[in-house]
Amino acid sequence: MDLEYVKNIWKLKKGNLQAEIAAWDSTAEEYLYEAKNNFMEDPFLSFLADKIQLEKSMVTLDVGCGAGAYSVELASKVAKAEGVDLSPRMVELGNKYASEHNIQNLELKVEDWHTCDISPYKRKYDVVFAHTTPAVADYSTLVKMCEASRKYCFLCKPARRTDKVFDEVKRIAGVADKMGSDESVAYTFDTLWGLGFNPEVMYSQQVWLPKKTLQEAQNWYIGRLKGYYSPSDEAVNEVKQYLESIAVDGYIHERIDTTLVNMYWKV
Description:
The chain is of the alpha/beta class and 267 residues long. It is 40% helix and 24% strand.
């Protein structure tokens, strides 16, 4: 495929950045390290370990790191694990966790991968990865990821995804397109292939069952809507009423079905 075509068509739709940040800040606690984030149980980490041998001399970068769950696990195997995320709350909690658990070689910082200058990151890292994050969501952010690595890249993107609650929220708000659409996976492969890389792919079917309080759910879903679209006040009120109607004992129970597409390539 013509890379110029992909470059021109595969662009993330700009929205309300502050609303997007607020949405991620509101759910930051959910992205802290958990025992399941290990190389045996986690499909992405298992995929990474199967493809490369991590070494104590390596430096890694987690793009869209959230609260650093994956970097925490990597830190024990590499010289330094770094991460960037646009959510100040995520970064704060991740660095706090590292401090409390005496993880001295982990460093997370606030950075918007979409707009940051790539120069300080260029060819600095042995491994660059991004896991189910909108930080790498179009041509330019994927190219940045490649430019930051001097050896290996790993990317995990959700595809064929349905969110029982959020899909209905978007319908109520009049949103026709789907965030994180399957085309993104195809464009990712086309871009990497066009740049001369040989991406390897592995699939993992997942079911996630997140639970939020009604207030947390309203902050999250409405924040995500405002981050990408411009819902009317009427639509926002309808979304709030919908969430109130499906709350069980004050909680919103989501169900997410998706196929995770894990990609690996050498640069």
